[in-house]
Write a structure and sequence with these properties.
This protein has 362 residues and is of the alpha/beta class. The protein has four domains: 1-89, UDP-n-acetylglucosamine1-carboxyvinyl-transferase, Chain (Alpha-beta prism), CATH 3.65.10.20; 91-183, UDP-n-acetylglucosamine1-carboxyvinyl-transferase, Chain (Alpha-beta prism); 196-278, Dihydrodipicolinate Reductase, domain 2, CATH 3.30.360; 289-362, no CATH class. 32% of the residues lie in helices and 27% in strands. It has helices spanning 24-37, 57-68, 106-118, 140-153, 210-224, 268-285, 291-306, 326-339, and strands at 13-16, 41-44, 73-75, 83-87, 94-99, 124-130, 157-164, 173-180, 188-190, 196-206, 231-235, 242-251, 255-261, 317-321, 342-347, 354-359. β5 (94-99), α3 (106-118) and β6 (124-130) form a beta-alpha-beta unit. α5 (210-224) packs parallel to α6 (268-285). The protein is globular and about 55 Å long. The model is unreliable at 1-9 (pLDDT under 50).
């Protein structure tokens, strides 16, 4: 971003979709920020860093959803397109429904449109059909248990209801979200672990033997030395086979959640061990915010820092996390370009944890 020319006030912002990690995050965040700021955006070389560049079906649904909630004019919105021009209109509150038509992640479509609905002129509802539990996206449970509680702390009332599970590759899931804006987003800080309230291990199994999930849960509990009563296996109804195992650590200030996906040719024990490794790495780090949540927090914190203050509460915020992913650093570049907010990343003395602070523009 640093080599781009300054944009004149009110002009279109030009975004290189191949920058950084070169994936769909650049597209989704650019669409969200275009609607928030009212600035047109031209995104080129979309997903150029992927094996199949250009818009996939799920990305196209995100573009269509962004246009629908803002009355936008869009050029280049078709599967395979490497360039779109998006000119937003007024944000439209009300009832919205979108269907991906594949197992593409519904939570990523929501991620594209939720920021605008948080500051819309009235309440909204959104129903999305597609994948709810995908290996390359936040699961519905992460959205519901980790991300949305933090959004609610920033002011808006947001609730999500899972109506049907949708596992990759069959998809067919559906969830409903209700949004009640409050005029802005207050800042939050997530600097320390709170006291642990509960530890949970849960396996989901669809159209597969329940014993797969039971083995995963036993393995995770045994290797983490947690009490047996913190685990459970649920058999759910979905269009195709699916299996995930999740660990949730609920603390007073923050809930974190970790997920591993069952797959053909991989034993339940190996899937469980992958999850245990991720949980242990997070606990050893000593920072409250995991790498996936760190990436997702940047957008609402950036918007909070850019919008006027809400009821005298601070704008922006800060959190402690591990080393930032390339996904997160790319996200930071996009936020700086659209909003001009200050985002500082300061490593702590041990070099394993960093403090990320998002502040209003100077």
């Amino acid at each position: 971003m640093t080599d781009q020319q300054p944009i004149e006030a009110g002009g279109a912002i030009h975004v290189d979709g191949a920058q950084g990690e070169g994936g769909g995050q650049v597209l989704r965040s650019s669409l969200a920020l275009s609607r928030i700021t009212g600035r047109p955006v031209i995104i080129e070389r979309i997903r150029a860093g992927r094996d199949k560049p250009g818009l996939m079906r799920a990305h196209l649904t995100a573009v269509e959803a962004a246009a629908a909630i803002s009355g936008a004019a869009v050029e280049g919105a078709e599967v395979g397109s490497g360039r779109i021009a998006f000119t937003p209109g007024q944000i439209r509150a009300g009832a919205h429904a979108f269907s991906i038509g594949t197992a593409g992640s519904g939570t990523l479509v929501l991620q594209t449109i939720l920021p605008a609905l948080l500051v819309a002129p009235g309440p909204s509802t959104v129903t999305i059909e597609g994948g709810t539990h995908n290996p390359w996206a936040p699961t519905f449970d992460f959205l519901d248990r980790v991300y949305l509680p933090l959004v609610r702390r920033m002011g808006p009332a947001v609730t999500a209801t899972l109506q049907r599970h949708g596992f990759f590759p069959a998809g067919g899931g559906r969830f409903h979200v209700a949004v009640e804006p409050c005029g802005g987003l207050a800042g939050i800080d997530l600097l320390e672990h709170g006291a642990v309230i509960a530890r949970r291990v849960r396996a989901l199994v669809s159209n597969l033997p329940a014993g797969i999930g039971e083995r995963e849960v036993r393995r995770v509990i045994g290797r983490l030395s947690w009490a047996p009563d913190c685990g459970r296996t649920d058999t759910v109804v979905a269009h195709g086979p699916g299996n995930v195992v999740e660990v949730e650590i609920e603390a007073t200030g923050l809930t974190e959640r970790f997920t591993a996906f069952g797959r053909t040719g991989t034993s339940a024990e190996r899937v469980a061990d992958e999850l245990v490794g991720e949980v242990r790495d997070h606990l050893a780090l000593g920072a409250p915010v995991g790498c996936y949540l760190a990436d997702q927090l940047l957008l609402p914190l950036g918007i909070s820092a850019w919008l006027p203050a809400v009821g005298g509460r601070p704008r922006g915020g800060a959190f402690r996390t591990g080393p930032l992913s390339r996904h997160a650093t790319t996200h930071i570049d996009v936020l700086r370009q659209f909003l001009g907010v200050r985002i500082e990343v300061a490593p702590e003395p041990d070099g394993r944890v960093c403090l990320v602070r998002v502040s209003p523009p100077l």
